[in-house]
């Protein structure tokens, strides 16, 4: 597969990455030795069906549900068009016609970028990650460390990636001392080219190869985003978006549930849609009792956490299910819903998924535009509870979940079984630092 003639960096910033003076890049072949075997070529498909090239690096987090391919945000999100990519092909250690570890195609919904990049903030926000299955042979070879400015000054760093000006699908490496740095980036005068965006920049630190930056672009001197504690925390959060959510309430001792007795057998599900005002995002969620209905309420706020208010629908109209008999024969759907990269939850509702009570989330841009309702229609998996008997002996947990930081947003939602309760769990994303 041949990528387009322009790199994603040029599409985002307009300035090509540069070879600085004499070209001192060296081809890496074979690519199966450490640390090169975890460096990946990326073929990115935009929503118009065009392909572009980038580079990434496999990085695993102990105990996480997914592996990550760390790369530049502009490889995963078209800044000028304010949209996420359609899909991405990940090929570790490709060496011409040889792909020693195979390849996978990942949907754009499994790609995540830093929120400040979406807003066009400082260059230090140009980082993101692709969620990949935990796969034997796709282990990383790098540590990741936050080095101080003193430790980075004039330090020798190296990079390797897949430049478009060289023979297609071949890895090239180079290195030099750091030329200059600030709190979020550092610069160097070694050679790069379009297609190398997202390449790891590493150094020898305490006897191990350690990633200290992500190559972002050029030219002369070229630039990398520094690894910070915030980035590492963000990578940890992204790697746990599969089945481990960052926020839920597991307290069973309080009285925050309903009904008092008898389960949900005589309770109905309210399906009215809740939508945040334009310019606001969902920063909290809870269930509440609306007479004889289980209903959602969402906490809506500005991105900086101001003007927060709970939104509910108190209308007792015909937007409910089932028609009669309550939820005694209805099950709770536990499939996870995740907004695409660059999108945030701005609305919520229940819906009837055959014999299941299931959530829907409204994902949109920050201003509420380009909104899409996302749901999971899969009925063949086992992501529901209880195993039998419906919700007749299940209670609704009403503990509110609220983002811990005033500059966070909710990006993922699911129900889970909290002993004999149906309860929500959410994942939150720090919007800026």
H/I helix tally = 4
Gap between N and C termini: 38 Å
Low-confidence stretches: 1-16
Shape: elongated
CATH topology value of the largest domain: Thrombin, subunit H
Helix content: under 10%
Mean pLDDT: 86
- By CATH, the architecture of the largest domain is named Beta Barrel
CATH class of the largest domain: Mainly Beta
Oligomer: single chain
Tell me the β content: 35-45%
Number of strands: 35
Could you describe the largest sheet, including whether it forms a barrel? Answer: 9 strands, mixed
Number of domains: 2
For the CA atoms, what is the radius of gyration?
Answer: 24 Å
Classification by helices and strands = mainly beta
Keywords: Hydrolase, Protease, Serine protease, Signal
GO biological process, one term: proteolysis
GO molecular function: serine-type endopeptidase activity
Organism: Chitinophaga solisilvae
Detailed description of the structure:
One of its GO terms (biological process) is proteolysis. The protein is built from four helices and 35 strands. The chain is mainly β. The two termini are 38 Å apart. Mean pLDDT is 86; it is low at 1-16.
